[in-house]
Design goal:
342 residues, alpha/beta, Rossmann fold, nine-stranded mixed β-sheet, four-stranded parallel β-sheet, 13 strands, 32% helix
Length: 342
């Protein structure tokens, strides 16, 4: 969203972030390096750009061969400090994104949270004897120097068309993309032409050492509920649907859901919304207004919060997503080359 009337304030923001980045570039501000391979998945903008599905993809792939860990800030949790996600954790203690990872993968890889990335990275690497660590959303957290950076940018709102906060949604200037090893254009339409790809590459203008990839959202064949029970017949067209979202950009989900059902009422909340009792009462009231055959549908991230409310536990279903990468084998090889080289 562009807010041109705030552009004068963006000039001040540009000066502050520019000075900060220069201090890191010159070594005046300390940036800690690690011997263990660290892959950062980040972006330049505020809001959803597909980081979480990419973190999932990398962690799942790398954990087949290496002792793998994921470190996030634990945004939205009610606690502070370092913690490792386990069966006693919930979204209030580790955040919804860490809990989402654990709900899907359990102990397949280590999932830790720490708002202080440097001590958090040291502790999880040493305590868990990791071979590789994935950082979630640390592009601007330059106190830690990742060995490999993946910059995510939304196909429908690419960073090269955006502007700095508060006039636009960029956390730092477009020049920050120069720190990336891979620039991933995410949430692309299913039918993406070579002409369109070349247009994006021409606007990105990658350096000789950078690679540009394209990816889309892939929805699971099944819709799941409590204890991984699947929606009967998986036929969404059969139901009146109350869609609950607390994510930055629900548009892709709405577009995909429209292919299956036109009987959808959408209740939209802000990203990482901490649902209150009043919210739940409103959700229940809206649910009761629906027809005889009805269900509550949400995202995988929102599900870990909504299912904690007793009344909703057996009513709410979620639709898992995965990232689908164009030239996947080449992408995988680039990642493996980095990890093996380290």
């Amino acid at each position: 969203m562009k807010r041109w009337y705030l552009y004068p304030f963006s000039l001040g923001y540009h000066m502050v972030t520019g000075i900060r980045n220069t201090m890191y570039d010159l070594g005046i501000f300390k940036s800690t390096k690690f011997k263990t391979p660290i892959i950062n998945v980040g972006n330049l903008s505020v809001g959803g750009s597909g980081k979480s599905p990419m973190v999932m993809y990398l962690a799942k792939s790398l954990s087949k061969y290496y002792r793998t860990g994921v470190l996030s800030r634990g945004y939205g949790r009610l606690t502070k400090g370092y913690d490792v996600t386990n069966y006693d954790s919930n979204y209030k203690t580790v955040g919804d994104e860490a809990m989402q990872l654990f709900e899907r993968f359990k102990n397949r890889f280590v999932i830790a949270v720490s708002e202080e990335r440097v001590p958090g990275a040291k502790k999880v690497i040493d305590d868990m004897d990791l071979d590789v660590l994935i950082l979630d959303d640390a592009m601007q957290h330059r106190a830690i120097k990742a060995g490999f950076n993946i910059l995510m940018t939304d196909f429908n709102d690419p960073y090269f068309k955006d502007h700095l906060l508060p006039a636009g949604d960029l956390r730092e200037s477009r020049a920050g993309a120069n720190r990336a090893d891979i620039i991933m254009v995410s949430k692309c339409p299913d039918e993406l032409t070579e002409e369109t790809k070349q247009y994006y590459i021409s606007r990105i203008r990658p350096t000789k050492s950078q690679k540009v990839f394209f990816s889309s959202i892939g929805y699971d064949e099944n819709v799941y509920g409590t204890r991984d029970k699947m929606l009967p017949d998986n036929n969404l067209n059969y139901y009146d649907i109350l869609l609950i979202t607390g994510i930055a950009n629900p548009k892709p989900l709405l577009t995909h859901l429209a292919k299956f059902s036109q009987r959808v009422k959408h209740l939209k909340f802000r990203d990482h919304h901490n649902f209150s009792d009043a919210d739940i009462k409103n959700i229940v009231a809206e649910y009761k207004k629906l027809g005889e055959y009805k269900l509550i549908l949400t995202t995988e991230k929102d599900y870990v919060r909504l299912k904690t409310f007793d009344y909703l536990r057996d009513l709410v279903y979620y639709w898992p997503i995965n990232v689908v990468i164009d030239r996947k084998e080449e992408f995988n090889q680039v990642i493996m080359n980095y990890v093996n080289r380290k």
